[in-house]
Amino acid sequence: MRVVAVVGNPKRGGRTTTVAERVAAQVASTASGTVEVLELSDIASELFSPTAPIVGEWTARVRSADAAVFASPTYKAGLTGLLKAFLDRYDTNGLSGLLAVPVMLGAGPHHALAVETSLRPVLTELAAVMPTKGLYVLDSDLDSLDHALETWWSLAEPALRPWLTPIT
User: Fold this and answer.
1) I need a surface site. Which of 1, 58, 60, 101 has the fewest CB within 10 A?
2) CA–CA gap between residue 50 and residue 66 (Å, rounded)
3) Structural element, H or E, at residue 100
4) Which residue, 162, 1, 123, is CA-closest to 67?
5) pTM reported for the whole predicted model
6) Buried b (16+ CB within 10 A) or exposed e, 137-150
7) CA proximity to 71, closest of 32, 28, 124, 14
């Protein structure tokens, strides 16, 4: 199983990357999989070029994965334009059948629904499969990230497991 973490933070290697990597590793560990991290900040200058080969390569890498974690900091109660611009490269139903885990980070609990009201609808339009709630992590919980992830995973794992277990 190959899990791709797509990080929509304009700042490379930040807290969003840390959380995305940890969530992707948790998902991958269920099926002895591997994790690939795509930092959209690395290709930000190419995202609006319709002929940029790197963007096509990255969208294909996500599309061919078994699962993907889409992670964004919360900006103005929504996902970053960087992640939205990347997802806009897919046609409607462009992620059909791909297991997706939406993840967002934010400074306050008043934006906790952003993962469900901002990121999930875009992934739904692309026909990604999301059998569980997304994960919203407060910046203040990053010091206890293990606990936050354990709590989320205890609820998410039963719904995700059927999608992660290889058919024999």
Assistant:
1) 60
2) 26
3) strand 99-106
4) 1
5) 0.96
6) beeeeeeeeeebbe
7) 14
